[in-house]
Amino acid sequence: MSFIHFSGRFSTGVEGGNTGSSNAPVVTECAPGQEWTFETPYFSGNLKAVSRACRSCGESSNVHVVREADGQFIFALFSGFMANRRELSENLAAVGEAAILSQLWLRCGSEALKALDGAFAAVIVDSRHESVCLVRDCYGQAPLFRSVEYSVDGECTRFAVATRPMLPDGRVPEAASMTVSELTSALDPRGVDCFFAYNYFIPPLTVFRGCRAFMGGEIWKAKASGDSFTGEWNFTEDRLPFPWSFEGVGASEHEEHITSKSICDELKDILGAASAQAADLNVCAFCGRNFGESAVLLSGGIDSTAIAVSVAEKRLVNRSFSLSFPGSVFDEADKFIALISALNMESIVCNMSPDVMDCLPAVLEQMGHPVGDASFLAMAEAGKAAASSGIAQLLTGDGGDELAGGYSRMEGLGKGLPFNVYLRRLFLVPPTARYALYSDQFRNELMILEDLELPCASMGNSSEHSDDPDRACIIDLLTLMPGNNGPKTLLMLAMNNVTPAAPLMSAPVARFLTSLPSRWRNSGSESKAILREFIRSSDVLRQGRSAPGIDLSRQTKRMLTVPVGEWYSGPFREQISQWISSGDSLIEETIFRCGTLDKTFMKHLETGETRVFRAILAMEVFMRILTGREPHVPFR
Predict the structure, then answer these.
(1) Number of neighbouring beta carbons within 10 Å of residue 499
(2) How far apart are the first and last CA of the chain?
(3) Alpha helices in 467-528 (DSSP H)
(4) Which residues contact 400 (CB under 8 A, 6 or more apart)?
(5) Nearest-CA neighbor of 375 among 557, 583, 595, 153?
(6) The domain spanning residue 361 has which CATH number?
């Protein structure tokens, strides 16, 4: 089980439709953590940052080749993990994710992809049909990007794919590899505007021109055209089936027979099975040994509490890992300490300080684009601290907010709030305000976003999903999840060879949660009603001990919030002011008007609103990394 960064290009000009043994794939393997290369007659490239080879047997399950007697082959490249790996492995007699994928493909072709559950980006090269297939998991947890260039007569002249955004020429940029002018030309104004509009990039938009992110569940099939492969490709698109429905199955006919106990009992069984499946991923498929310890990542919120209860009920994992921000209003130590005590779990608590800002450049290099969400820093530090404690896997509560309607901005939906008002709540910076901040040159290149223009707009507004809270959940699943929340956990933990597992996002749990009548997700008085009721009904909590005055089912949402706003106003205030006064800002040279940094920082000091300044700073640091301007965090 491993996440790897990979990049590759479709080959061109290969003669002959039958590849034969002389054109068989070649994979050059190096030590774990080093770069591998792979070459096939149709697709070649490299694997970087191999994050998970077994320490006991040295095996890694990222690449597998099926070779047939006539010289034909199936080459599978897999980054991420399969939640249902054990089941598929037993059915196929295949070991490791890439081997499972290639065997599935051999038997079922592209239909094989529908059997996968997990977080992954994958490439399958099939010489029998002169085709390449690319796929991203349905939640979009594993990133995948494409860059296509066409000639004036519509011929594809270049097709590149990578797990990080690519420059207009199809290359993944390296640190200190560009001039400011080159970077300015490469930035996609539409993607940049999307980032400042919503605080993340909504697929397919990215930071660079000509590069597009795969949507969650998106499949691209490329087939060589003509009788023999000459470098011309025909592309078709498809999509994995989503594991959620939001159809309220049985709501009209059988809702009166649904009881709190029956739902909680069913969720206990389904979530328990998903948690057991998740814990099993920490076992090497080749030698059967654990990669390391497993623990539950406790944030103090409802979602991670539900996971902790589930694993405690099944006695799957007895360790927890938490982050604390001493002295901050965002610190939730009292909540997770109460839960740890009630569940009688072993605990590791890591205290965070302003020094966490030092990891921002590494976070942006791992992602390949700016991130405005401060919890990326928390997740990166969680991976680092967990790895140093011998933890190789963290079970998280990811997916609970999107599947069970946990975001506070949903307040009022279903109770009279117009849906278009809700859509405007999604903006970090509204259109008019963004327009006023941009430089004349940048503004001239940009068609400003006037309203929510999302790939899921038609689904969110369709009569098929007439329940407003559920429509909001669908929008989050198709935009926020693949654009921010999904890759965040997977990539940040992978920086330190720690693998996440999210039982709430397993297909059986997602189907169950979204098939319930909507009142079980948002009751009107509380969000995530079903998860709160599940916690209240827990036998293990009733038998345990909780801190006086703390109701573990009524926590408010914090999302591992890093108190960067408090640090900007406190220990970093003087340094930030000096940096702004120095005029050493790339972002004011390229995107924003002069004075924007000072204006947004002063607004933060006056109002406590830090998200806009945080997003601007992330873009600034990202640009400094690519152009080699030091220091990467300018006020540190």
Answers:
(1) 26
(2) 36
(3) 468-475, 486-494, 507-515
(4) 302, 303, 306, 406, 504, 528, 531
(5) 557
(6) 3.40.50.620
Task: Answer whether 8's CB lies under 8 Å from 161's CB.
Answer: yes
Residue with tokens 């709190």: 260
> Is a pLDDT exceeding 90 seen at residue 595?
yes
Query: Which element (helix H / strand E) includes 321?
Result: strand 319-324
pLDDT tens sequence across 416-465: 889 888 888 998 988 889 989 999 989 888 865 444 454 444 444 544 55
- From the list 239, 253, 276, 306, the residue with the least C-alpha distance to 513 is 306
Q: Write out the DSSP string of 593-607.
A: -TTHHHHHHHHHHHH
The enclosing domain of 224 has a CATH number of: 3.60.20
d(CA 378, CA 298): 12
Q: Which of 509, 543, 577 is the last residue of a domain?
A: 543
Q: How far apart are CA 90 and CA 280, in angstroms?
A: 14
In this predicted structure, the answer to whether residue 636 has a pLDDT above a threshold of 90 is no
* pTM (2 d.p.): 0.92
Q: Tell me what pLDDT residue 454 has.
A: 46
CA angle 307, 308, 310 (to 5 degrees): 60
**Tokens encoding 115:** 């059997």
Q: In what order do the strands lie in the sheet with 118-126?
A: 63-67, 73-82, 118-126, 131-136, 218-224, 233-239
Tokens of 607: 């109002």
pLDDT at 234: 75
**Same domain (yes/no): 113, 232:** yes
State the average pLDDT over residues 326-348.
84
Which residue is associated with the tokens 């944030």? 299
- Give the pLDDT confidence of 546-562 residue by residue, as tens digits: 544 456 556 665 557 89
Give the number of domains in the chain: 3
In this structure, are 256 and 113 located in the same domain? no
Q: What would the mean pLDDT of 358-369 be, rounded to a whole number?
A: 96
The DSSP code for 290 is: B
- pLDDT over threshold 50, residue 30: yes
Question: What number is the average pLDDT over the span 47-54?
Answer: 57
- One-letter amino acid at 77 equals L
User: What 3-state class would DSSP assign to 256?
Assistant: helix
Mark whether 371 and 409 lie in a shared domain: yes
| Phi then psi dihedrals of residue 173, to 5 deg | -70, 145
State percent of the chain over pLDDT 70: 83
**Mean pLDDT (whole number) for 163-171:** 93
Q: Which of 514, 543, 572 is the last residue of a domain?
A: 543
Report CA-CA distances (Å) from 501 to 46, 111, 308, 575: 26, 25, 13, 39
Q: What would the two tokens of residue 229 be?
A: 């492969």
In angstroms, how far is CA 458 from the centroid of its own chain? Answer: 23
- The whole-angstrom separation of Cα 563 and Cα 197 is 22
In sequence order, what are the residues at sequence separation of 6 or more whose Cβ sits closer than 8 angstroms to the Cβ of residue 313?
A: 268, 272, 538, 539, 540
